[in-house]
Amino acid sequence: MKWCEPRLLVPGVGSFPELHLPIQPRSKPPGKLPTKRESPYLDQVIKSLWDFHHCFSNVREHLRDTAIYSACIDERARSKIKCIHDGEPPCRSCFKSKRPECILSGPFETGRRQSSGTKPRESAPPTSAKLNVHRDSSVEPASPKPSINDIAAGKLTKDVVLGLSPQVLLVAVTTFTQKFPELAFNHAPTFSSHVKEDVTVWIKIAATLALCHRFLPVTVKDHIPSEDELAACSRESLQSIQSVTPSISAVQSLLIMSMYEWGAGNGYGAWMHSGMATRMMQSLDVMKPDRGSEVIETEIHNRTFWACFVMDRFIFCGRSQPLALPLDTMTIQLPIGEEDFAFGGVSHAGRPMESTGPFTVDEYYTVLVKGFEIWSKVLGLIISGGRRTPGMSQPENCPWVTGSPWKKLLDSVEEWRSQHSDRLRFPASGVAVHVSLGHGEKFAYVNLLYYVCILFLNREYIPFLPIQLPEPVGPIDPPLLEASAPPGWWHSRAKDLYNAAECITLIHQQLDELNAPLLTPFAAFCSFCAGSMNGYVTSFPQMNLNRSPNSAAHEELNFLHLEKFTALWKMGRGWAQTLKRVQTLRFHVIRDRARFIGKTRSDFVALYESIHDYAGVSPPIRAETELSANGASTSQLFDGNQTNDSKENAQEMRHNPQPRSSVLGELMPELNPEIFLTGDEIWNQAWPMWGDQQFGTFDEAELQFNYDQDLPTL
């Protein structure tokens, strides 16, 4: 009987030759086992199979050495897809999916064998991400790589952060520079070199990614850890370096985390990080820079110092919280222009503090530094009592009198504004031009700062509920001013007030239309302030002599901006809820004017103070009773005995029974009007100013630093 001898070709691998194995065809009819005459052939088959087995063992050993034989157990269980890794977990799929456990089923060595004659060994058993098996003790273990478990547990390492691609870092730094112009210390052209030189710069990178995470495109977010993981890593790392030698990058990291904590609703964390940054910066003695240093390095130090100055005032509370960097004790020069900073050349030395301009957008950081100094004084006056401060009603302290506290601040604001070039002023210069040149956010920030100062100062003296007033006037509730204002003075103040609210709204609107929204804490606070005044003049148009026909539409835009902001930052919740309550109050005032005649600011203390809220505070409830301060019980507001005027107003409102803004209605639950106005604790949600709530006392039992919680549902 003749046998066919087709042969099976086994391709060679590496240095192993290909094999030609004889196989029996399927068509061979069944029969007896080969006879002795066929035994030579059997011997050949057995030998060939043994050779194949030996070859396969060598191939397996070769694959083990190149770390491509093993596979993630999870990947093999789910599908037949290729498992890509470097010989130790996590594999690429687990890393991208942030899967907490990655266990490989095969060997994990990445080194070559010492000699080709090494005896093949058995495969290593499965191991966890923390286990590293080595074939030979004489081979030096490879450096362990960051594990997906470290990321999942919030234990990011230096290697993870520094292992991010340069493209990701560039996007993060660019986003940070655009969205946070108040922290202008990054020198983008040399940033990558600083990453390699500074041993603590990786903490700054982690903090930057945490702060900018909400603004980064999805394609970038897919390649970096989550915001919470980055923030946790930054906090832990900063704690570990507080007692070591200070560095500029450590100071910058603290400032970035201060901004992050502020937006996240952790006021105490923001204050502490800012304070530590200031103390560390002072220890570097940058107020006496080394004249031999390069221009760029000197300016980075200089700008980092001014960033501490700005951040100190950015989170300023106004009362018990002292400023860490008083301006009158500083001798450092103002920042140089943006172009000089970028190119490393100095067309002129940094301007001294008394410089009067004119300043262009190239020198916006100098403008911001001087502006935030004025803003801290404005905020300090208002939240420390404003016109209710003892003695402020006396004739010599009336706001129109030269030398009075209010007039001094207004003069300071206008003098600062006079130092701005025409191209730096809105609306004389539009937002679109500056966005096209790449510095729209900087231009917007300067103008927002100016208009919010104007708004705060002029809002201080307007009546709270001007139901029966035909035109703009001064305060109608105690303490009353002891002198009369010059003719037309209150009309001018009203014009400035509502123009400021309109300009803030238009700046945000134009930025949104140009796809360059400014959704940062201070910008959102400005929108909150504008919304309160746009709503006010919508309900009481006579308080601006009917010069604000678009106020209702602008109020809607303010709500839209706060809605977007609240989706990104926790601190916006308090502002949104305050506007909702103010809007609901106005709704009932218009519907039933007679019931609110004679009501003043003292009847709504907590609500009035919440309009000045600089931090989006969501504080605890206080046990006070409002709406009964002037003898009117809360139950009388809904006793059904309405006057003819109130009935007519109610009929007018019947076709629009809800507050005007549908946006805020979607943003927050609808309020029950009777509960809203009659509950003893509702109007007294403790929404005091940042100074009152956060730093009014350092009594441990009363101190409330965090403001990221929602208010009780009404």
From TrEMBL:
One of its GO terms (cellular component) is nucleus. Residues 645-655 have a biased composition (Basic and acidic residues). Residues 633-644 have a biased composition (Polar residues). It is found in: Nucleus. Residues 270-341 form the Xylanolytic transcriptional activator regulatory domain. Keywords: Metal-binding, Nucleus, Transcription, Transcription regulation. InterPro entries: TF_fung (IPR050815), XnlR_reg_dom (IPR007219). Residues 105-148, 633-662 are annotated as: Disordered. It holds the Pfam family Fungal_trans. GO terms for molecular function: DNA binding; DNA-binding transcription factor activity, RNA polymerase II-specific; zinc ion binding. PANTHER family: ZN(II)2CYS6 TRANSCRIPTION FACTOR (EUROFUNG) (PTHR47338:SF19), ZN(II)2CYS6 TRANSCRIPTION FACTOR (EUROFUNG)-RELATED (PTHR47338). This is Xylanolytic transcriptional activator regulatory domain-containing protein. It comes from Rhynchosporium agropyri.
